[in-house]
Design brief:
It is a single chain. Helix content is 32%, strand content 38%. By secondary structure, the chain is of the alpha+beta class. It has a domain at 2-98: 3-Layer(aba) Sandwich (Aminopeptidase), CATH 3.40.630.30. It has a seven-stranded mixed β-sheet, with helices on both faces. The two termini are 27 Å apart.
């Protein structure tokens, strides 16, 4: 059973930072100085917990409606946890009155986001040396 909790950065930081470091810095070789940024304190953070208390995934919703920093620990991928985090962040955006959400998807994950009703737009571009494409979803 997976439980998803929305938190402020002050509460989410220890677990979210650890998950993001594992996925982005260690696995994908994103420079540490690019991973944590000045936006975190202003975001709504989602954490997924497996079982009673094991944090296994995270994502964030920025004040402008962008969803980002979606990360699932490697051992927990393929179980629907990323989709659950994404849908909870979309729900949070809808609840606060956002009319759409947007994200910068790594191109290997485009099909995942399409499955969740996001539509690609524009050209592919590099972010931290990784190909990305903008995607949007109307709420």
């Amino acid at each position: 059973m997976t439980r998803i909790v929305l938190q402020a950065w002050s509460d989410a930081q220890p677990e979210a930072s650890r998950i993001r470091f594992s996925v982005f810095v260690e696995e994908q070789r994103v420079p540490l100085e690019m991973e944590l940024d000045e936006f975190d304190p202003h975001c709504v953070h989602a954490l997924a917990f497996a079982g009673a208390a094991q944090p296994v995934a995270t994502g964030r919703l920025l004040p402008d409606g962008h969803i980002g920093r979606m990360a699932v620990l490697k051992a927990w991928r393929g179980r629907g946890i990323g989709g659950a985090i994404l849908e909870r962040l979309v729900e949070a955006a809808r609840e606060r009155g956002d009319r759409e959400v947007a994200l910068s998807a790594q191109t290997h994950a485009l099909a995942f986001y399409r499955h969740h009703q996001f539509v690609a737009e524009g050209e592919v571009y590099l972010d931290a040396g990784i190909p990305h494409q903008m995607m949007r979803r109307r709420l």
